[in-house]
User: Fold this.
Amino acid sequence: MPSKVEALSKKDLQELKNMLLERKQAILRKMQQYYQESQEMETNIAQDAVDKAESSYTKEFLLSLTDAEREQLSQIQAALRRLEKGEYGICQSCGQPINKKRLKIIPWTSLCINCQEKKEKEEAEERELEREKEIL
Ligand SMILES: [Zn+2]
Assistant:
C-alpha cells in the first residue's frame, strides 16, 4: 500500500530538529526555575509554619507542572533519538508516516492523528470508568 503522505526533506528534518531542541531548552530552563522556586518555598515553610498549608499547595502545583513538562521532555528526547536513527516521522503505533503539518505543530509526537485520537478516546473512556467507580 503506497503512502501518499509527503516525505520529510532534509530541510524539514533540520527545521523539526531545531524546534525540538528549542523546546527542550525552554523546558529545561523552566524546570530549573521551578526547582529554585520550590527550594525557596521550602525555606519559607520552615520559617513560617502558619502558611504551611498554602505553601505546600503552591509547591505541589509547581511540581505537577514540572511533571507535565518532564513528560514532554522525555517525548522530545525520544523524538531526537528517532531523528538520529532515521525513524522520525513514523507513527510508533501503526507504522504509517505522520502528517508533516502535524509534525510541525507537535514535533515531539510519536503518533499519527488516527492513533492519537484513538488513544485519547481510550483514555477518556478509562477516566469515565474511573469516575463511575467513584460514584458507586
Ligand atoms: Zn498511527
The first helix runs from residue 10 to 47. DSSP finds four helices and no strands in the chain. The radius of gyration is 20 Å. The pocket of zinc ion is lined by residues 91, 93-94, 96, 111-112, 114-115 (CB under 6 Å).
